[in-house]
Amino acid sequence: MSFTVPAEWAPHRAMWLGFPSHADLWESDLEAAQAEVAALARALAGPGGERVRLMTGHPDGEAAARALLGHVPNIEIVPGRFGDIWLRDTGPIFAGGKARGFKFNGWGGKYALEHDDTVAAQIAQASGAELVPHDFILEGGAVDHDGFGTVLTTGQCLLNPNRNAGWDDAKAEAALAASLGAKKVIWLGEGLLNDHTDGHVDNLARFVAPGVVAVPVAWGRGDPNAEAYDDAARRLAHQTDARGEPLKVVRIPSPGFVEGDEGEGPIPASHMNFLIANKAVIVPIYEERPGELARQALEQLFPDRQVIGLTSTAILTGGGSFHCITQQEPAL
Fold first, then answer.
1. Is 102 a domain residue?
2. Nearest to residue 57, comparing CAs of 39, 36, 30, 32?
3. Which residue from 155, 54, 140, 78 is spatially nearest to 323, judged by alpha carbons?
4. Residue ranges making up the domain that contains 110
């Protein structure tokens, strides 16, 4: 039976969301990150039209989640076990009525945390979906889907020898075809500077409608990712999707230079890490002016959804944002 991964704008049965639970990882940012995730959960459960399944990874995290969100309608707290909250990468990808699970090695061995390699099985069991395991390493943030079998990805991540040694584009495409029903893979190059995921595409380029891909455009002087953005736009400009239809590229303001802790240089802030919910689109905001411009641009692309901007500065200290900490469970 043939299948493809549904586009993110297709109806969802539920939205899985990871809740910061480990004080030893988040340190002084824990309470702020929990507050930002709680705000996201409320937006998803309210105007977003989602059934939120909030997964906690530690009893302390469960207690904090219940204190913040225990009585909010449409939010179910699901105690679980994970190393950290990045469910997009550790959880399954739902397609064809099943949960597709993949090996996980801590983004090329950088952050190997206990229980992260069990998250896909936990979510599959809780959702009642059959888990189909695949014997290669893949993170959900490394691939983006249009619902027709077109997959966006970056060579920097998918062909990195710290994931699947010996892979070339042909081997990667065959693996994506067998596991996710990919009919066409569109290869982009480098991702964001200092992104420990080695260039996840959900920080760089996203499908926003059939045949339409959003890509950032540099904001302000000294945007550290200007070249990567323009390279992605050039690569997409003359591409077609799996249907043979030409792609339209829409440019959205980036956050510009967002500085990390002292001495760290720029951190990988991206408005592309927005989340498409049933009735809303929620975009992470780092700096007020470019964030509002990005929100307005997304309003034009999603006229049937409310576009909500929420602060994500504390979550970003952990390395990602809203898309990284969620995984949609399709209605089909």
1. yes
2. 30
3. 140
4. 12-330
The yes-or-no verdict on residue 314 having pLDDT over 60 is yes
Residue 269 belongs to domain with CATH number: 3.75.10.10
Q: Which of 175, 176, 324, 325 is catalytic?
A: 324
Instruction: Please indicate whether residue 324 is annotated as part of the active site.
Output: yes
- Measured from the Cβ of residue 217, the count of other Cβ atoms closer than 10 Å reads 15
Helices (H), the chain: 23-26, 30-45, 59-69, 87-90, 106-109, 119-127, 155-158, 169-180, 226-237, 288-301, 313-316
Nearest residue to 45 via CA among 258, 330, 279, 303: 279
**CA-to-CA distance for 254 and 218, rounded, in angstroms?**
6
Judge whether residue 1 has pLDDT over 70: no
pTM metric for this prediction: 0.97
Residue 283 is assigned to a structural domain of this protein: yes
Number of domains in the chain: 1
Q: Is 162 exposed, middle or buried (0-12, 13-18, 19+ CB in 10 A)?
A: middle
Distance CA 307, CA 303 (A): 9
